[in-house]
């Protein structure tokens, strides 16, 4: 069975929309695109290089289109991006010129992929896809990059319908500009208790 790892840039209030640039995703009148850019530094660059180690990708259609328009021409910044398999969940898109792209159209296809042999599968961005994975308890790890700001509006990583789940922190670091890199792995059911009892 393959691990599904969700990698997200999020704000303190859970917004994941358009971290990379003003035109990335303006849905809903979102006007803060590119909110992660002011926090880039050498420390975050080193962690990002590690997180961008080659692995197959599972992407939603919108994120895939953004990636397909950028990464084939900029692969020197993400070694291996053109070589790994890009799995795309889409009911409207069936082909692409980007090499090693495979199209899926259902939750069953994702479950079949997860149960196959191969490398870990990394999910970048892909908000609607991540919601589907979280609702169906298919996320093995969350690698979060938490930025020191709140936006109040925007697509949220943990929208309604998330299955209650416990996670364990496996790795963390904080950059000089205050970005928290925190990797979590799935750790069973939520446990409750009474403080001080």
Number of helices: 4
Q: Major β-sheet, in short?
A: 8 strands, mixed
Q: What structural category characterises the helix and strand content?
A: alpha/beta
Q: Which residue ranges are poorly predicted, with pLDDT under 50 across at least 5 consecutive positions?
A: none
What is the average of the pLDDT values? 95
Strand residues, percent: 15-25%
Roughly what percent helix?
Answer: 10-25%
Globular, elongated, flat, extended or rod-shaped: what is the shape?
globular
Q: Give me the count of strands.
A: 8
Alpha-carbon distance between the termini?
40 Å
Radius of gyration: 17 Å
List the helices and strands in order: EHEHEEHEHEEE
> Strand order, biggest sheet?
4-3-2-5-1-6-8-7
List keywords for this structure.
197 residues, alpha/beta, eight-stranded mixed beta sheet, 4 helices, 19% helix, 24% strand, globular
Describe this structure in words.
The protein is an alpha/beta fold and 197 residues long. It is 19% helix and 24% strand. The chain is built from four helices and eight strands; from the N terminus they run βαβαββαβαβββ. It has helices spanning 42-51, 61-70, 107-114, 127-135, and strands at residues 4-11, 56-60, 86-89, 101-104, 121-124, 141-147, 167-174, 180-186. Strands 4-3-2-5-1-6-8-7 form an eight-stranded mixed sheet, with helices on both faces.
Brief write-up:
The chain is α/β, with parallel strands linked by helices. Helices cover 19% and strands 24% of the residues. The protein has helices at residues 42-51, 61-70, 107-114, 127-135, and strands at 4-11, 56-60, 86-89, 101-104, 121-124, 141-147, 167-174, 180-186.
């Amino acid at each position: 069975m393959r691990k599904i790892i969700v990698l997200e840039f999020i704000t303190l209030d859970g917004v994941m929309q358009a971290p990379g640039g003003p035109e990335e995703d303006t849905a809903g009148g979102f006007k803060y695109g590119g909110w992660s850019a002011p926090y880039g530094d050498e420390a975050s660059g080193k962690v990002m290089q590690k997180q961008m180690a080659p692995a197959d990708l599972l992407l939603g259609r919108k994120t895939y289109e953004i990636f397909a328009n950028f990464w084939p021409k900029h692969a020197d910044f993400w070694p291996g991006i053109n070589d790994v398999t890009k799995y795309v969940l889409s009911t409207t898109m069936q082909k692409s010129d980007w090499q090693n792209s495979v199209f899926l159209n259902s939750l069953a296809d994702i479950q079949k992929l997860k149960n196959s042999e191969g490398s870990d599968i990394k999910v970048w961005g892909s908000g609607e896809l991540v919601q589907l994975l979280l609702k169906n308890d298919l996320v093995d790890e969350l690698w979060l990059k938490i930025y020191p700001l709140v936006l109040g509006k925007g697509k949220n990583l943990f929208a309604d319908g998330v299955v209650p789940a416990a996670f364990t922190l496996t790795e963390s670091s904080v950059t000089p500009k205050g970005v928290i890199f925190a990797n979590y792995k799935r750790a069973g059911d939520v446990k409750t208790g009474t403080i001080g009892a």
